[in-house]
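Field log, afternoon session.

UNIT: design team B
ACTIVITY: writing a sequence onto a fixed backbone
BACKBONE:
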C-alpha cells in the first residue's frame, strides 16, 4: 500500500460556498501533484467545474498543478477574478 500524505486545501469564493467551509483536510498518495486535490474535494465543489485559469499555491507560494505535494502542505486553489 502506498504511503499516504495529508494536506490542507484552502478554498475561496464559489468553491468555499459549495464546500460550506474554506478549509479541508485531504489524504493523497505520496508523490501526488497539487492538481490531484481536485479529485478529492466534495461533489458539490467538483460540480462547479474547475475553471481553466485556476491558480495553485503551495504553502503560500505560486506553483503549477504538477508540483509534488508533501505531507502537511497547504494547497490553495485561487479562482480567476473578474471585475469592472
Amino acid at each position: 500500500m502506498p504511503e499516504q500524505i495529508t494536506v490542507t486545501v484552502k478554498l475561496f469564493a464559489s468553491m468555499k460556498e459549495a464546500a460550506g467551509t474554506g478549509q479541508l483536510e485531504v489524504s493523497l498518495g505520496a508523490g501526488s501533484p497539487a492538481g490531484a486535490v481536485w479529485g478529492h474535494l466534495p461533489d458539490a465543489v467538483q460540480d462547479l467545474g474547475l475553471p481553466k485559469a485556476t491558480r495553485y499555491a503551495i504553502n503560500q507560494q505560486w506553483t503549477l498543478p504538477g508540483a509534488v505535494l508533501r505531507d502537511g502542505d497547504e494547497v490553495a486553489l485561487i479562482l480567476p477574478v473578474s471585475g469592472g
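LOG NOTE: The domain at 4-78 is CATH 3.10.20.30 (Ubiquitin-like (UB roll)).
NEXT ACTIVITY: expression trials, pending approval
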